């Protein structure tokens, strides 16, 4: 069986596909992972999977927005989700000609795409093969989908379609207790984190104090030089008599190591599946993969979502309601408030108990190897 995986336009979205793509290869199938952005190629290769560049035209995100009438970002969070669906639809289908050329020459038996990889259903329809949609996190993408459908009317009409095709198989990863009424049911799969790995040092996988707080604020540290923010979080968190482990991109490490010269602070680029199991609390900006990885290891979380991002707020709300997290919006997230929320979780064992319960739910879900059998059956039935 030959499989094309469209894993999204960032390394973080690709990581959600590693376990299933690897399981397909381990079962003897050929897998190709397409990369529509330069920085995704090294992540794919570092995970041990074949990377096929299908690069989009050399346009900046601002140019793409301007050319497609998406320059103005809506203030309303729900409208912004619809707008984001339109933007992802444009970005994900810009390399469509390259995708189709590759697909027609390699001839896959099935196409797998992430939740916002809107090129995947179009490619599968063009090639006449089954389409598998794989969830990246616990968020329902219906608002994204509505925006994408509105944006892709011409592309859909060219295929004789009025709306985005429903997947032949929907792969879900959310713990069952987090499912909301009316959400679609699909094939459940256990979340197994996929990360680019590195040469490990002992502090990365063993904590040096009774309590460890993990801190990651994504690539924003390097992109926007938010060193003061991270330094402030660490300064306040370490007053709690805990160890702080700060995961940041390589380019931010020298500056932060110099600023955070403290025996109770470790700084470096750490694969999240290595760091998370050592943490008693994880502080992060509500990214879906980060959230799912922490959940899979039973780690309670301090979430810092953007109030203008409906997706982040939705996922954060559900974890708070489940008792496995506390939340501070960007506006509320002073470094002092973050430290207070860490102390709240450390002092109250109910947070760890709730997170452990969700981890048990995840561990009980079918392994990726079992989902491979479903995909094999799907292709067999189609043929």
From TrEMBL:
This is DNTP-hexose glycosyl transferase. GO terms for biological process: antibiotic biosynthetic process. Keywords: Glycosyltransferase, Transferase. InterPro entries: EryCIII-like_C (IPR010610), EryCIII-like_N (IPR048284), Glycosyltransferase_28 (IPR050426), UDP_glucos_trans (IPR002213). Pfam families: EryCIII-like_C, EryCIII-like_N. One of its GO terms (molecular function) is UDP-glycosyltransferase activity. Belongs to the glycosyltransferase 28 family. Signal peptide: none annotated. The keyword Oxidoreductase does not apply. Residues 234-376 form the Erythromycin biosynthesis protein CIII-like C-terminal domain. It comes from the Bacteria. Residues 23-218 form the Erythromycin biosynthesis protein CIII-like N-terminal domain. The keyword Transferase applies. It comes from Amycolatopsis vancoresmycina DSM 44592.
């Amino acid at each position: 069986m030959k499989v094309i995986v469209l894993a999204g336009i960032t390394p973080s979205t690709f990581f959600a596909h590693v376990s299933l793509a690897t399981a397909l290869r381990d079962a003897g199938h050929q897998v190709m992972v397409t990369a529509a952005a330069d920085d995704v190629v090294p992540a794919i290769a570092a995970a041990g999977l074949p990377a096929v560049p299908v690069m989009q035209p050399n346009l900046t995100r601002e140019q793409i927005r301007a050319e497609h009438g998406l320059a103005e970002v809506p203030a309303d969070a729900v409208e912004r989700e619809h707008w984001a669906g339109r933007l992802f639809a444009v970005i994900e289908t810009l390399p469509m000609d390259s995708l189709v050329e590759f697909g027609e020459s390699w001839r896959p038996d099935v196409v797998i795409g992430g939740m916002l990889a809107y090129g995947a259903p179009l490619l599968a329809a063009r090639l006449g093969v089954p389409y598998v949609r794989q969830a990246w996190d616990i968020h329902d993408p219906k608002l994204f989908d509505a925006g994408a459908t509105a944006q892709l009317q011409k592309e859909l009409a060219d295929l004789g379609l009025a709306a985005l095709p429903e997947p032949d198989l929907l792969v879900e990863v959310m713990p069952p207790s987090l499912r909301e009424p009316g959400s679609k049911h699909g094939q459940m799969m256990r979340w197994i984190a996929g990360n680019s790995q590195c040469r490990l040092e002992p502090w990365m996988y063993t904590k040096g104090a009774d309590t460890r707080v993990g801190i990651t604020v994504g690539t924003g540290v390097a992109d926007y030089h938010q060193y003061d923010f991270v330094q402030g979080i660490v300064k306040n968190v370490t007053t709690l008599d805990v160890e702080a482990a700060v995961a940041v991109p390589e380019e931010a490490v020298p500056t932060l190591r110099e600023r955070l010269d403290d025996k109770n602070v470790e700084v470096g680029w750490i694969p999240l599946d290595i760091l998370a199991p050592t943490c008693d609390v994880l502080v992060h900006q509500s990214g879906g993969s980060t959230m799912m990885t922490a959940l899979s290891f039973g780690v309670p979380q301090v979430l810092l979502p953007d109030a203008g991002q409906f997706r982040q707020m939705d996922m954060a709300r559900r974890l708070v309601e489940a008792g496995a997290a506390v939340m501070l919006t960007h506006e509320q997230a002073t470094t002092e408030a973050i430290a207070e929320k860490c102390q709240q979780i450390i002092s109250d064992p109910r947070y760890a108990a709730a997170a452990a319960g969700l981890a048990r739910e995840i561990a009980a879900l079918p392994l990726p190897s079992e989902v491979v059998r479903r995909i094999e059956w799907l292709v067999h039935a189609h043929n």
